[in-house]
Amino acid sequence: MRRVFQLLLSILLIFQIQCVIASDDLYSFYYSGESEFINRFNASLKSYAKAKDIDLEMFDAKNNSSAQLSQIYSSVSSKDPLIINLVDTEQASEIIYHAKSYRNRIVFFNRKPSDDVFKKYDRVWYVGTNSAAAGKYQAELISDYIELTKNVDRNRNGVLDIIILQGEKDHGDTTGRSSEILKQLSDKKVKYKVLSQNFDDWDTQTAFNDVKTLASKVGLKNIDMIIANNDAMAVGAVDFLNTQGYNLGTDSKDKTKYIPVFGVDGIPEAIEYIRQEKMTGTVFADFSALAKASVDIALDDSLDDEVLTRKIWYKITDRKVLIPFVKYSSFKSYFKKYR
């Protein structure tokens, strides 16, 4: 009897050790490794995982939803937690269906599936940013810029002629950022006219071509401002303007050849352009905070919002956490406000 007890105890200890080992493994899945936003997040994720001695394995779907499903299906049987940046948010339910039998904890990152997904499985969370807040903060940057410079109406027609460079069609961030920026401008009594509002799919070159096409139609003198849903597209806009002798930054001899450009994300190229005064401003979330929240939720054993909120220091509501934004510009320092 004693030997049986010892054997059962040994089996239990082995099982516990295996569980601990499993909890120290983490899989992350990205829609595209070519995204600068994803690269920044991944760098923060790797750094935080290393500090916590977590084995991290990463997968790049290269914007192929079928490839991503295959990558995820090959990993769910490990029972380890998954951090997923979806190629197609419509496939979230299918992923949940396969993960439920293995009880994987899943953290969807940056691309939020529908609320129905959260009702189907109690071990799924979302970590991201507030799309509307990005538009709100962009509008605050623009309002501050208008107040400080007084000369944004370049063609003196009494309205702010703007280009909006949008992300993917039907993407939550595209819809949230674009609609909120226009709402905020209206609330701030800014008279504006949208010259174009095309979908440039978060891509630098696509945005470059978009601004080039519009400039050939209306002329650069009739463009007062460019507002992009992300920094990659803002960088594309600045790159085109540079080819026309505009937005050359601190070395420019003609300061009138400047069209303010605003973005979202705080990618290195955009920050550098802002420092060089080629680009006007951006808003961004703390990548390290995004990574920390994703990892801490994925590896924890709690299912309670309040318990997890106390652990990660960010408010979780209905298993969703939104990391706040910070403003950064070439014309005003905002950092003291957020320290």
TrEMBL record:
<protein>
    <recommendedName>
        <fullName>D-galactose/methyl-galactoside binding periplasmic protein MglB</fullName>
    </recommendedName>
</protein>
<keyword id="KW-0762">Sugar transport</keyword>
<dbReference type="GO" id="GO:0046872">
    <property type="term" value="F:metal ion binding"/>
</dbReference>
<dbReference type="InterPro" id="IPR044085">
    <property type="entry name" value="MglB-like_PBP1"/>
</dbReference>
<dbReference type="InterPro" id="IPR028082">
    <property type="entry name" value="Peripla_BP_I"/>
</dbReference>
<keyword id="KW-0106">Calcium</keyword>
<feature type="domain" description="Periplasmic binding protein">
    <location>
        <begin position="29"/>
        <end position="299"/>
    </location>
</feature>
<keyword id="KW-0813">Transport</keyword>
<keyword id="KW-0574">Periplasm</keyword>
<dbReference type="Pfam" id="PF13407">
    <property type="entry name" value="Peripla_BP_4"/>
</dbReference>
<dbReference type="InterPro" id="IPR025997">
    <property type="entry name" value="SBP_2_dom"/>
</dbReference>
<dbReference type="GO" id="GO:0030288">
    <property type="term" value="C:outer membrane-bounded periplasmic space"/>
</dbReference>
<comment type="subunit">
    <text>The ABC transporter complex is composed of one ATP-binding protein (MglA), two transmembrane proteins (MglC) and a solute-binding protein (MglB).</text>
</comment>
<keyword id="KW-0732">Signal</keyword>
<dbReference type="GO" id="GO:0055085">
    <property type="term" value="P:transmembrane transport"/>
</dbReference>
<dbReference type="GO" id="GO:0030246">
    <property type="term" value="F:carbohydrate binding"/>
</dbReference>
<dbReference type="InterPro" id="IPR050555">
    <property type="entry name" value="Bact_Solute-Bind_Prot2"/>
</dbReference>
<comment type="similarity">
    <text>Belongs to the bacterial solute-binding protein 2 family.</text>
</comment>
<keyword id="KW-0479">Metal-binding</keyword>
